[in-house]
Predict the structure.
Amino acid sequence: MRKDTKKEDNRNYGLAGILYDAVSIIITAIMLLAIVFTFCCRVVGVDGTSMNNTLADGDWLIVTPYYSEPKYGDIVIATKKTAARGPLVKRVIGLPGDEVIIDADDNVYVNGIKLNETYALVAESYKGDRTYPVTVPEGCVMLMGDNREVSWDSRFTNIGFIEEEYLLGKAQLRLSSDWDIYYNFDN
């Protein structure tokens, strides 16, 4: 008799039961994705050429949130409202208290040490509208794009230094527009 009851339950399950199960699975998947993207990582798209040749327009970045201690050379995403159109994807050049100088040949010096910027594209002198040397304020970082000729970054006073609280995260992986995955950003 038990087998008959089970068969009857399966027959009564019908379309409503199938829809209920499908909706439950979809809602569970969405909740899991929300948890992963809130606490583990985020996906951020690259829009523009300011980080060429390291990052290209259309690339996607896997970004770890809760980024509390920026380091020199890290590629970060900043969410501060600036004259730029949205989040900034830039490289950390200066940390709080650092003295930064950009000389006439576009060499960047941090605390008197010339940076070895093999990643940077520098076509012509473009120091922004700042007078150097500058000192990065406490609680802020100085960000610059790798494609210096077209990048709007901390060299311009309308972008300015970025408070650390506005750093959304650090780029960990890059998925290029041709679906290749890169683990470093040195090309």
DSSP finds one helix and twelve strands in the chain. The chain has a mean pLDDT of 83.
